[in-house]
């Protein structure tokens, strides 16, 4: 059995609302932050938090945009995401607020925390790890892959990194993936990546069905990436 609750927290003047899911009665458990796509903390990421809790993790679906703020069209989602893509230091500060909130919960072991995210959330996971935050792991699932805000110094990134990516993703190409791999190698980061042949962007989202936009659900890649994610978390949060 799992327990869930909503948790309000703040960054700057913005009230944020995260969703916590954990095995019933757990205290100081290994914890996974779940970062959302460009539309906000939608049910998709809350269900992923529930699924992680069913695997024994404390999971915290964080909020970047604000309590009750969601994008309902491509235009709205892009407008919500843009300020944080344009100012990634502000994004990292907001993610740090989520990390601090999660680590303060009784269900969380503050020494065993990882972050994972989808699409925009993949960028969130990478940028929080690049900041030097005290994380055991960071996983990007069909994530956005811009370079780091500044060159990574060896030893700065504490987290191991997992990159799960679609071969045909037009949003973050294989060239982008190669650049991130080189960046991580240059900083001495423990990283691994899996590329799913024929998979597009958003391959884990059953609602993704727009080949012209480059977002297509792929049940096989979804299953395989979930197994890869769980194996990674089992290793880094042991």
Overview of the structural elements:
The protein has 238 residues and is an alpha/beta fold. The chain has one domain (2-236): Rossmann fold (3-Layer(aba) Sandwich), CATH 3.40.50.1820. Helix content is 35%, strand content 27%. It has six helices and ten strands. The chain has helices at 43-54, 74-86, 88-103, 120-130, 174-186, 219-236, and strands at 2-11, 14-23, 29-35, 58-61, 108-118, 137-141, 160-166, 191-196, 209-210, 215-216. The strands form two sheets. Strands 1-2-4-3-5-6-7-8 form an eight-stranded mixed beta sheet, sandwiched between helices. A two-stranded antiparallel ribbon has the order 9-10. The model has no long low-confidence stretch (mean pLDDT 97).
Q: Could you give the topology of this structure?
A:
Blueprint: E1 2-11, E2 14-23, E3 29-35, H1 43-54, E4 58-61, H2 74-86, H3 88-103, E5 108-118, H4 120-130, E6 137-141, E7 160-166, H5 174-186, E8 191-196, E9 209-210, E10 215-216, H6 219-236
Helix pairs in contact: 2-3
């Amino acid at each position: 059995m799992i327990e869930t609750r909503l948790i309000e927290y703040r960054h700057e003047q913005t009230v944020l609302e995260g969703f916590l899911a954990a095995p019933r009665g757990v205290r100081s458990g290994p914890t996974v932050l779940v970062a959302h796509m460009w539309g906000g903390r939608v049910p998709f990421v809350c269900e992923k938090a529930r699924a992680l809790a069913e695997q024994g993790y404390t999971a915290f679906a964080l909020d970047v945009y604000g309590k009750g703020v969601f994008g309902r069209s491509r235009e709205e989602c892009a407008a919500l995401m843009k300020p944080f893509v344009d100012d990634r230091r502000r994004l990292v500060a907001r993610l740090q607020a989520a990390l601090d909130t999660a680590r303060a919960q009784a269900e969380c072991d503050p020494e065993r925390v990882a972050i994972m995210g989808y699409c925009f959330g993949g960028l969130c996971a990478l940028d929080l790890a690049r900041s030097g935050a005290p994380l055991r792991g960071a996983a990007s699932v069909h994530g956005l892959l811009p370079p780091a805000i500044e060159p990574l110094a060896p030893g700065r990134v504490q987290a191991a990194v997992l990159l799960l990516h679609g071969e045909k993703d037009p949003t973050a190409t294989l060239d982008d993936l190669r650049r991130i791999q080189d960046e991580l190698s240059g900083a001495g980061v423990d990283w691994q990546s899996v590329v799913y042949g024929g998979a597009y962007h958003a391959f884990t989202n059953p609602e993704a069905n727009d080949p012209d936009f480059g977002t297509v659900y792929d049940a096989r890649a979804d299953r395989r990436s979930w197994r890869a994610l769980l194996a990674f978390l089992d290793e880094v949060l042991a």
